[in-house]
Write a structure and sequence with these properties.
heterodimer; A: alpha/beta; Aconitase, domain 4; 9 helices; 7 strands; globular; B: alpha/beta; Aconitase, domain 3; Aconitase, Domain 2; five-stranded parallel β-sheet; 17 helices; binds iron/sulfur cluster
Chain lengths: 208, 471
């Protein structure tokens, strides 16, 4: 797959609420796995069950949104535990979430998403309100998250989004897979290591 | 102009600035546990890569390991499989495995410092958000995700952005019965769970200067709960005294070289900070959380706050907390009936945590209330052995606490220790998120180990200072 992430187009799904933590995105019991396969179906499992009990439907259980690939969220999404299982579950739910637009993101969650090639874009509260309403009033609406022009477009209009310049460039160039880039600096890595007294000097010496 | 420790250590470990504007930073120590590493090793195999510095990589098991018995095979087949993966990965890639059979096993953030792996002036990472703990030694310690675990295995480096640094001074003295846990919960309540976003926290002031290493670890452990990416305390004589003689600490001639380095990375007296906050130790009382974030707390004699006391954008979360916890604003937190008491975790599962409780319980005829299930879970096998040597296991058992094997236990309940239904737990751990302790409707009240013990004995949230006549 082309690693460039410039324009993501797809239907959307809105998960409302501030401070949605990673325990809610994927309950801790699903961390007991050795691969990420199959995590998608358990995304938001406890929230979904709780609503079901109250006779309500979580958006992830609403068939109208089953084909969504863009996720709308509110403030501080992905806070709490650093578990990467959260974005891993989201990218494996349904067709797979390709981009997230929200009012703000928890830092580790944001970083985990970048490392997986999922851009997280920020909009203000009023914009999010409109986007969510547009999405919920007609689930068939297709949205475009454009990293290059920094906007998200619905049927009605387009809204500006913010994304840190460096991260934006990584997605445009397809360089979000950092491992390759990090590894390319092999020589500099060993130079830095030998400049540190503890790396080259006393090391870890086990006694006893 | 001087520099702070964060800047110095960050600069010393920077390999290069990346085109993205971020930095490639060398990691001095990589700690691994069973939950976030198997996928990373799978990726390593897929790409045909080796672990670049296996001698700086240490593995243990903590999250899933049961605490009633560590006997193999584990009853839960998935847990057993995860154990086998860690064992095999460590063996295949030449990583030291501090497994249960070695007597060195325990929660990563307890094992690292205890074995002398955690050292001042280092960069440390682990696939776990509470890696901030190691900052207590004047190290920069970061929690990372699985794909970053893979990066560090393959390259010993990590992509990091440069943080701002906030110096948090707690001056004066703490009152008797007030502990490091109360200090950090107080700080988080004041600055907010998002207050630290984009920051490293430098903890300082008389209170931190007098803290033991274990107290410093408790506070740094929860820096992440205040939104900070990491937290640290500048190293000093207390740090060096703690380190000396530990298994992986430098020795003989190397000790002096190490001391030079450690002293050199301390924040300069004229260092600049992006922000500075000052608190008074005397203002802090025992703290109990009442809500669903570690910032939703009150002092023991306080009441559940009213929604109107919070800014508009926080009110929905406050309402959510009332609904989930079943508490009313204005209600005192004291007197809240509890079902479970848990003393343990990487926040408060060290020997000094159990010591603080045992010292108060010894001599009294304290018994856990009949309706309370009380767990005492050492953070590591070494802590457990020391507790037995000192006879703490007996003191706890006599009082009606269950004394367990080392592990994360009910901190996040990926093992058999779980809340049932809507049970309320008084817990010395670090997170009170919805469902955190194993039941989707279970409720958690965070507090210090001494306050947990007091709650266990009274069967309800109580002021430990009164129960144990602390003054
Ligand atoms: S004790 Fe809790 S917070 Fe600490 S490492 Fe274990 S699960 Fe994480």
């Amino acid at each position: 797959m082309d690693p460039k992430r410039i324009k993501m187009t797809g239907k959307a799904i809105s998960v409302r609420g501030n401070d949605v933590d990673t325990d809610r995105i994927i309950p801790a019991r699903y961390l007991k796995c050795v691969t990420f396969d199959g995590l998608g179906e358990h995304a938001f499992e406890d929230d979904r069950a709780q609503l079901r009990e109250m006779g309500q439907t979580h958006p992830l259980d609403d068939s109208r949104f089953a084909e969504a690939e863009i996720l709308f969220v509110n403030k501080n999404f992905g806070c709490g535990s650093s578990r990467e299982h959260a974005p891993q579950a989201l990218m494996r739910w349904g067709l797979g979430i390709k981009a997230i637009v929200g009012e703000s993101f928890a830092e580790i969650f944001f970083g985990n998403c970048v490392a997986l090639g999922i851009p997280c874009c920020v909009v203000d509260e009023a914009t999010m309100d409109e986007l969510m309403r547009e999405n919920e009033s007609d689930a068939r609406t297709s949205f475009v998250v454009d990293i290059e022009t920094r906007e998200v477009k619905g049927n009605r209009r387009s809204y500006p989004v913010t994304i840190p310049a460096g991260v934006r460039q990584q997605f445009i160039d397809g360089r979000w897979d950092m491992t390759a880039e990090l590894l390319a600096a092999r020589e500099r890595i060993s130079a830095t290591a030998s400049s540190l007294p503890y790396f080259g000097g006393w090391k870890y010496t086990r006694y006893g | 102009m001087g520099k702070n420790l964060y800047e110095k250590v960050f600069d010393l470990h920077t390999v290069q600035q990346l085109p993205s504007g971020n930095y490639q930073v060398l990691m001095g120590l990589h700690l691994i546990h069973e939950v976030t590493s198997p996928q990373a090793f799978a990726m390593l195999r897929e790409r045909g890569l080796d672990v670049m510095h296996p001698e700086r990589t240490f593995a243990t098991v903590d999250h899933i390991i049961p605490t009633h018995s560590q006997g193999r095979p584990l009853a839960d087949p998935v847990a057993e499989k995860m154990m086998q993966h860690v064992e095999k990965n460590a063996a295949d890639f030449g990583v030291t495995y501090l497994g249960p059979q070695t007597g060195d096993q325990g929660i990563v953030h307890i094992v690292g410092p205890e074995k002398g792996l955690t050292q001042p002036g280092m960069t440390i990472c682990c696939g776990d958000s509470h890696t901030a703990t190691h900052g207590a030694f004047g190290a920069l310690a970061f929690g990372i995700g699985t794909s970053q675990v893979f990066d560090v295995l393959a390259t010993q480096t990590l992509t990091l952005s440069k943080l701002k640094v906030r110096r948090i001074e707690v001056n004066g003295k703490l009152s008797p019965g007030v502990y490091s846990k109360d200090v950090i919960l107080y700080i988080i309540e004041k600055l907010g769970v998002k207050g630290g976003v984009g920051y490293a926290y430098e903890f300082a002031g008389e209170v931190f200067e007098h803290f033991s290493m274990e107290d410093r670890m408790t506070a740094c452990n929860m820096a992440i709960e205040g939104g900070a990416r990491c937290g640290y305390v500048n190293p000093d004589q207390i740090t060096y005294d703690y380190m000396r003689g530990r298994r992986y600490a430098p020795k003989d001639k190397c000790w002096n070289k190490a001391l030079d380095y450690w002293e050199s990375v301390k924040s300069d007296a004229d260092a600049l900070y992006d922000d500075c906050v000052v608190f008074r130790g005397e203002d802090i009382e025992p703290v109990v959380t009442w809500g669903i974030t570690p910032g939703q707390s009150t002092s023991i004699n306080g009441t559940i706050p009213r929604k109107a006391d919070f800014p508009g954008h926080e009110q929905t979360l406050i309402q959510e907390a009332y609904d989930y916890m079943g508490f009313e604003p204005g209600q005192p937190i004291r007197g809240t009936k509890i079902d479970v008491a848990f003393i343990g975790s990487c926040t408060n599962g060290r020997i000094s945590d159990f010591e603080s409780v045992v010292e108060l319980m010894r001599g009294g005829s304290f018994k856990v209330a009949p309706h309370v299930r009380a767990l005492v879970v050492p953070g590591s096998q070494a802590v457990k052995a020391e507790m037995i040597r000192r006879g703490y296991d007996q003191v706890f058992s006599d009082a009606g606490f269950e004394f367990r094997e080392a592990g994360c236990s009910m901190c996040l309940a990926m093992n058999p220790d779980k809340l049932q239904g809507r049970e309320i737990s008084a817990s010395s751990s670090n997170r009170n998120f919805k469902g955190r302790q194993g039941s989707p409707t279970g409720r958690t009240l965070l507090m210090s180990p001494v306050m947990v013990a007091a709650a266990a004995i009274e069967g309800e949230v109580t002021d430990a200072r009164e129960l144990f006549s602390i003054d």
